[in-house]
Each structure stands twice: as C-alpha cells, then as structure tokens.
C-alpha cells in the first residue's frame, strides 16, 4: 500500500501543521502527494499506517537501547536515542487517541 510509505515519511508528525522533517507542514505533504498521484488520501487509512510506522520505529529504538545496554562495558552514547523514543512514544499515543476505535480507551 503506497500509504505505508507516506506514513513513514510523516513519522513524528501528529497535527496537520507539524513540520515533516522540519520543512513542510504535514497537511501540505499530503496535498502534494494527492496532486502528484491524482488521488484523494483516505485520512483514516493513512492514520492506521501512521500508527504502524510509529510502532515499528518505537520497537527499533527500544531494540537499540537494549543492544547498547548489553555491551560490556555498556556504550551509553547509544542511550541518546532514549530522547527519540520519548518523542516517538508521545507521537504514537497521540495518533492512537485519534483512532475512532481507541479514542476513549487511551485517555
């Protein structure tokens, strides 16, 4: 599904005006995609892909922290990713709260 790629690109954005990679608002990226592909993006379907992409990133970050702690001696520089994990976790919870089926369970 091409929306999986769009969701990965939108990583760490939640609101429509959040900047994608610090450059362009999320809303505008979606508009550009729709114009280029000549399709209307199903926002609910995109949201599910965003949740999945964010979950995958969170798992990758957790695995990185686990790997760094397993080193002998531990290389604590890798733990700088923990700040990234906190941002990813915050983004994941915000995205989940927007899903119709989980809106009330998250709060």
| Straight-line N-to-C gap | 30 Å
Estimate the helix proportion, in percent: 55-70%
Number of helices: 5
Shape: elongated
Protein described:
The structure is a single chain. The protein has 107 residues and is mainly α. It is built from five helices and two strands, in the order αββαααα. It has a two-stranded antiparallel ribbon with strand order 1-2. β1 and β2 form a beta hairpin. It starts with a helix and ends with a helix. The C terminus is likely disordered.
Layout of helices and strands:
Blueprint: H1 2-9, E1 19-20, E2 24-25, H2 26-37, H3 43-70, H4 81-98, H5 103-106
Helix pairs in contact: 1-3, 3-4
Summarize the structure.
The chain has 107 residues and is mainly alpha-helical. The protein contains five helices and two strands; from the N terminus they run αββαααα.
Highlighted features:
107 residues; mainly alpha; two-stranded antiparallel ribbon; 5 helices; elongated
